[in-house]
Amino acid sequence: MDYNLIILVVIGIIAGFINTLAGGGSLIALPFLIFLGLPANIANGTLRIGIFLQSLVGVSDFRHQKVFTFKEGIWLAVPATVGSIIGSKIAVDINQQIMEYIIGGLLIFMFVFMLFKPEIWLKSKSVNIKDKPTFIQIIILFPVGFYGGFIQAGVGFFLLAALVLGVGLDLVKANAVKVFIILIYTIFALGVFILEDLVNYKYGLILAIGNMIGAFIATRFAVNWGPKFIRIILLIVLFGASLEIFGVYKYLGNIIF
């Protein structure tokens, strides 16, 4: 029996839960795919199978629980999808370490902002998002979609920030719309990786089994426990993801071992 495959399912459950409820689950799944021997670009493409299927489960469940409708998310998905297609096609010539520091800095900023400005994330809002996105919302969602198409890991954090702070949704609805946007743009991003033959279907589908289970569980928590619970999970995951990006875990491991 290949125990790595069992671990991959477990990691998929954890990643699917975190991705659906907050974001950053791919920061766990992506390194493990690389550990299994996949080159980074193939691991990045393989990851998208689980992202697509977990998002499909999440959207279906959120919609069943009447958290949002397709009309409320489709226009917001357009600029993010355009950005994701470009992001998945373009190879950006940037120092990897610098990019990781930038992402880590943004995650730290969001952690501090959520910690000291909880009312912005928790207050109930009534926002009509059935109309076409405003110019400002396009400006916000396009680069987030670009990042999601290019890397994916951690995009949930930035999408939530865009939907709460830029669009004006509460955390529960923002979570549902976030999952819907990721579902739409992942269809196109995954297609790019498939056309480039950068997908390992075996690992991708095994990971997806766990992703879907995690997403199903997460939608129940999101709706039943509400924005305060989501905010706590976000704070924990943001803090943990920031430490990972800045290499704190690796540094501590070198000290201990």
Describe this structure in words.
This protein has helices at residues 3-21, 26-35, 40-64, 70-89, 96-116, 118-122, 135-150, 155-167, 171-195, 201-245, 248-256. The chain has one domain. The radius of gyration is 17 Å and the shape is globular. The protein contains 11 helices and no strands. The protein is 81% helix and 0% strand.
Keyword list:
mainly alpha, 81% helix, 11 helices, 257 residues
Alpha carbon gyration radius: 17 Å
The ordered H/E elements are HHHHHHHHHHH
Quaternary structure state of the chains depicted: single chain
- Kindly estimate the percentage of residues that lie in beta strands according to DSSP: under 5%
Count of helices?
11
Structural class: mainly alpha
The rounded distance between the terminal residues' Cα atoms is 30 Å
Task: Describe the SSE topology.
Elements (H helix, E strand, L loop, with lengths): L2 H19 L4 H10 L4 H25 L5 H20 L6 H21 L1 H5 L12 H16 L4 H13 L3 H25 L5 H45 L2 H9 L1
Helix pairs in contact: 1-2, 1-10, 2-3, 3-9, 3-10, 4-7, 4-9, 5-10, 7-8, 7-9, 8-9, 9-10
Quick overview of this protein structure:
This protein is mainly alpha-helical. The chain has helices spanning 3-21, 26-35, 40-64, 70-89, 96-116, 118-122, 135-150, 155-167, 171-195, 201-245, 248-256.
